[in-house]
Design a protein that fits this description.
The chain is of the alpha+beta class. The chain has 6 helices and 5 strands; from the N terminus they run αβαββαββααα. It has one domain.
Length: 161
């Protein structure tokens, strides 16, 4: 699978826009992308971003996320600011979209999937998304720090209605 840079960047913009213009937390952004990619793979045997995910202690993380978001900041497409955590929590990154996503890069299925992810998971925080991803076959079936095979998406029982 190869990286789809344009789709990757626009998926991040799409999710930010759908969640009132910003995504709170790297963990949350990583999990939203995971659910978008693995749900689409389970349904259509393809992913939106084309990224590789690793099974890390906090759940699936896309390998190229840092590189893509750094590029987006450099090109003034998003801003990332550190917000001090409350009650001793670590500071968190807030990803804010500075431009609208280019929807022409997505087909109808991909747009539907991104909408579904925003609606289904958008109101959850990073910790809640981490727990959901930990309960799924792709994460359970992968050794820690290893690449998560997309084929494990077929062992989930996602309700697409």
């Amino acid at each position: 699978m190869s990286l789809h840079r344009k789709k990757y960047q626009n998926a991040i913009l799409y999710l930010c826009q759908a969640l009132n213009g910003e995504v709170w937390g790297k963990k949350k952004l990583a999990k939203l992308l995971y659910f978008a990619d693995f749900d689409l793979y389970e349904k259509d045997q393809r992913s939106i971003t084309g990224d590789v995910y690793r099974a890390l202690p906090m759940g699936p993380v896309p390998e190229t996320l840092e590189e893509i978001t750094a590029e987006m900041v450099k090109n003034k497409i998003i801003s990332i600011k550190q917000v001090q955590g409350l009650n001793g929590y670590n500071p968190t990154e807030v990803y804010k979209c500075l431009i609208k996503p280019d929807l022409s890069v997505f087909d109808d299925e991909e747009k539907k999937m991104l909408d579904r992810i925003a609606v289904k998971y958008g109101n959850l925080n990073g910790k809640q998304l981490e727990e959901l991803s930990h309960a799924e076959a792709p994460y359970i079936g992968t050794e820690l720090k290893s690449k998560i095979p997309y084929e494990l998406a077929f062992y989930r029982d996602t309700d697409f209605d």
